[in-house]
Amino acid sequence: MQPIQGYHAHIYFDASTVDQARALCEDAARVLPVVMGRVHEKLVGPHTEWSCQLACGAEEVVQVLPWLAMNRRGLVVFMHPLSGDELADHRDHAIWMGAVRPLKLSVFGA
Question: Would you say residue 78 lies in a domain?
Answer without folding.
Answer: yes
